[in-house]
Specification:
It holds the Pfam family Amidohydro_1. The chain is α/β, with parallel strands linked by helices and about 450 residues long. It has 14 helices and 18 strands. The strands form four sheets. It has a six-stranded mixed beta sheet, with helices on one face. The termini are far apart.
């Protein structure tokens, strides 16, 4: 006779200092990987309990969802060849050294980026990996392995570049692959790793790098492949005025027209940056449901411009947040990105137009919508138990009166506890299973050995 499965244990995260959820002042109950109940202030859970965690020192928010990054760039942070440059010169400078990337270094870069994101309260880590020099063909496999080992939810996009300098693109020949190779590997990793079901721990998207690095054929066939496998599409779009000029010169059209021509104008797609759109393009993107990943820190570092977050959201586009590559942000801290999104948007729209709750919503529910997920991004019954818990016990928070506002305005940068799919992955500010000092030393050694200028 087959034994019955053991009943799932129920944990009450009780009486938080503050919580980003309506009517949940008394906390929430987790059973297995999901939230099964939210508890009003002063009440007790209806469901029977096995464990209780006193959250009276913690501000509880949904786990943050990162929708754009380039993990490999953690190895070239603050690199002398790329300092103080806008996007195109910055890319050209770093593309001279990125061909040195090898599997060992890429694995360490991936591990470090996942760990940094997790420590910042991120529970779903998206990466756009488009760099496949010889020997690094199994990059997606490495990223999936590292995510599973750490226990973080991953959204890995199989990026690509197929136009080198000799074809009119930006990257050197060593960094590109031909369209057929890219499409074959895209199909391979989708078959191996993509899980479209609710609660999935690993999902795959297809992400040709940008209009100036790939062919239109690759864009079109990626869209067909995404439809067949029910996966998302991602690319850079509208990041700089130089990109607009390139598209006009190369294609005789602006980036949004290009996106429409290749069959990407629909809710399956989300784009990174989305800065230089005119009023008509904002309306078209919103009507089509194309998501926008706002990368405020990177946009400021490279002086790319101001994403039109409020207009895009009002038009109907999901708006999420991303840290972007760690060579244009120089860290992988998403809660810091929330603060930057708030400040940059207030500078654009006015102090009363964007609140701390708006910025947190972009990093949680908005980002989840960009990824096509309705099972994460909010604290409510039936959603995945992905949570970030912060304490306000540092000097920067002293004197704060609204705990949720303080999290953003006073500059929180490290979570005390993080839960992914109902399991604690960060305890007392430390990631389980990772010795951060050793990780930093090994990552630094490889970064300097491969990309040092001496």
């Amino acid at each position: 006779m087959t034994a019955s499965p053991a009943p799932l244990r129920r944990l009450w995260i009780r009486d938080p200092l503050a919580i980003l959820a309506d009517g949940a002042g008394g906390g929430l109950v987790v059973e297995g990987s999901r939230i099964v109940e939210t508890v009003p202030s002063g009440a007790r859970p209806v469901t029977p309990l096995h464990e209780t965690f006193d959250a009276s020192r913690h501000v509880v928010i949904p786990g943050l969802v990162n929708t754009h990054h380039h993990f490999f760039q953690t190895l070239t942070r603050a690199h002398p060849v790329a300092l103080d440059k806008p996007l195109f010169p910055w890319l050209k400078a770093l593309s001279t050294i990125w061909p040195r990337l090898n599997p060992e270094a890429f694995r360490m870069a991936t591990r470090l980026a996942y760990t940094e994101l997790l420590l910042s309260g991120c529970t779903t880590a998206g990466d756009h990996h488009y760099l496949f020099p010889k020997g690094l063909e199994a990059s997606v496999d490495i990223q999936v392995e590292e995510a599973r080992a750490l226990g973080i939810r991953a959204f890995v996009t199989r990026g690509s570049m197929s136009l080198s300098e000799k074809d009119g693109g930006l990257p050197p020949e060593a960094l590109v692959q031909d369209d057929d190779t890219i499409l074959a590997d895209s199909e391979r990793v989708l078959g191996l790793f993509h899980d479209p079901a609710p609660g999935a721990m690993v999902q795959i998207g297809l992400a040709p790098c940008s209009p100036f690095n790939v062919t239109k054929r690759l864009m079109r066939e990626s869209a067909v492949l995404a439809e067949r496998h029910d996966c998302r599409l991602h690319t850079h779009l509208g990041e700089t005025l130089d990109e607009n000029a390139y598209c006009l010169d190369a294609f005789g059209q602006r980036p949004v027209d290009y996106l429409e021509e290749v069959g990407w104008m629909g809710p399956r797609a989300w784009v990174a940056h989305g800065i230089h759109f005119d009023d008509g393009e904002v309306k078209r993107l919103g009507a089509a449901g194309v998501g926008i990943c706002h990368c405020p820190t990177s946009n400021m570092v490279l002086a790319s411009g101001h994403c039109r977050t409020c207009e895009l959201e009002a038009a109907g586009s999901p708006v999420g947040l991303g840290v972007d590559g760690s060579a244009s942000n120089d860290n992988s801290n998403l809660i810091e990105g929330v603060r930057h999104a708030l400040m940059l948007s207030r500078l654009t729209y006015g102090a009363e137009a964007v609140t701390h709750r708006d910025a947190l919503r972009w990093a949680t529910e908005g980002s989840a919508r960009c990824l096509g997920r309705s099972d994460i991004g909010r604290i409510e019954a039936g959603r995945e138990a992905d949570l970030a818990l912060f304490t306000l016990n540092e000097l920067r928070f002293s004197g704060a009166h609204d705990p949720l506002a303080a999290l953003v305005l006073c500059g929180a940068h490290r979570a005390d506890r993080v839960m992914v799919a109902g399991a604690w992955r960060v305890l007392d500010g430390h990631p389980l299973g990772i010795e951060t000092g050793r990780l930093r030393e090994e990552h630094t050694r490889l970064a300097h050995a491969l990309f040092g200028t001496a």
